[in-house]
Amino acid sequence: MFRVGSTSSGRGGGATKKPLNPSKWRSDVPGIPDEYFERSDSVPITKEEVRAIIISKARLKDGDRILDVGCGSGSITVEAAIRAAGSGLVTAIDRDGEAVALTERNLERFGVQGYADVVHGDALDVLGGTGGGADGSPRASPYDAIIIGGTGGDTAEIVERCSRMLAPGGCIVISTILIETLHAVLGIIGGMPFEDVDITQVTISKSRKTSTGTMMLARNPVTVISATRRG
User: Which CATH number fits the domain 22-229, given the four candidates 3.40.50.150, 2.50.20.10, 3.20.20.140, 3.40.190.10?
Assistant: First the structure.
């Protein structure tokens, strides 16, 4: 399905990575384990279980043009690039230079760097361009899927801008942990040309061994909003 890049030593003081095993990724199943990505303590990563839901809701396929807003460590960018490989392209945006560098290294690590453009800049500035890529603005619009994660409080305005860049029948997927962001997103989606709006909230608990047995530790609830642009 794709060539896995060679392993490299960790950078930025992040988590230790396992050696990559290409045989693990020959099926089209989302949710690559977090430990296979190069990571940094200062850059967030969308955890594998939540990532699997987001990728599934986006209905990604070979040849898609995909926008990933707030790419962080690049875990969603990598999984999107794997599914777009062929004639597709992922455009990833982040205003954090370390996140951009980390995303580029993870794309190379999984051998899919040729299927993604990573743009360093504020999402509203980048999405305000007319396309073409010369000024750093996305050049693959309109998109078949848009995934929105970390946005620094501008999520509603970004959703409004992205709605104009989504192809008819395309999917938009927004993930948030803040109630205020959820409220703002739902308020703006209601006045846009979206249908099949779905809201899914998930709380993941992971096991941890203790001296007496195994306990489950809950992570923050994540709300995933997905919708389809009307044709």
Answer: 3.40.50.150
